[in-house]
Amino acid sequence: MYNCHGKGGLNLEKMKGKYLFLSVIYIAVFIVILFGTSVAWFTATAGTDDATNLITTGTLTISYADGSAVIASNLKPATAQQVGAAYANNTCAYGNDNATIQANETICTIYRFTVTNTGSLYANLTAAFSNFSIVDALTSVERNANGNTVVNGDTSGYFKYAYTSVAPGTAQTFTGSPLVSATGINLTNSTLAPNAAITGYIVVWLDSAAGNTYQGITAKAALNVTAVQTNS
C-alpha cells in the first residue's frame, strides 16, 4: 500500500514556506525603496553674508542760543505804544526822557534767542514760558513805609510780553499778553528745515496800570522751545 504522506509531500510544504518567506522579504525591500526615494528632494539656499541696511531713521534735534531765561527788572510802567516806539528806536528807554534818565531807567527789556535745527528732519517748533516768579527786593518795613504790600504772583497780569521775529530798530505794534499766564507763543516760520535757524525777540514790560505795589520787584520766567516732527 502506498503512503500519500511520504517524503515528497513533506518537501512540498517546505517549498511553500520558502516562497512565502521570500515574498515577505521582497515586499519589505520594495517598501524601503519606495519610501526612501519619495523624500530625497535636492535643496539649495543662497543669500548675503552680511546684514543689509534697509532703513535709516532721521534725527530731530535743535540747539538754543542766548540762554533760556527772560528777566525783566528795573522797569518803570509804560504803555504798549511807548514800548513800541522805544523798540523802533532800538532801545528800551522812553524817548521823551532826557539822556540822563534814559541812561538809568528803562520801560522794557528785549530778549533775543536763536533756534537751529541740527537734525535731518523738518521740525515744527512751539515755545512756551514756565517757572514764572517774582522776587521782592523791598523789606516788609519798606513796604509798610510806602503803604503797599508784596505782590503775590502778579495775579493782575501787569507784566506783559510780546513776541516778534523783527529785530529792534523797526517799528512794531505791540498789544501785550500777561506773562504770568503765557502757555504758548506763536513763532514766526515755525516749521524749520534741517540746518536752518530762526531768531526771535521777546519784549517784556510793566503795564502802565500797575500801582505802587510793583515797586522794587523782579519778574522771571523761563522760555522753552520744543521741536516735534511734522506728521505728529
Strand order of the largest sheet: 1-3-8-5-6
How many angstroms does the end-to-end distance come to? 115 Å
Strand content: 25-35%
Low-confidence stretches: 1-26, 28-36
Outline type: elongated
Give the helix proportion (percent range).
10-25%
Features:
five-stranded antiparallel β-sheet; four-stranded antiparallel β-sheet; 9 strands; 23% helix; 28% strand
Q: What's the helix and strand layout?
A:
Layout: H1 7-38, E1 62-65, E2 69-72, H2 80-88, H3 99-104, E3 109-117, E4 123-136, H4 140-146, E5 159-164, E6 177-178, E7 191-192, E8 197-206, E9 217-229
Antiparallel strand pairs: 1-3, 2-9, 3-8, 4-7, 4-9, 5-6, 5-8
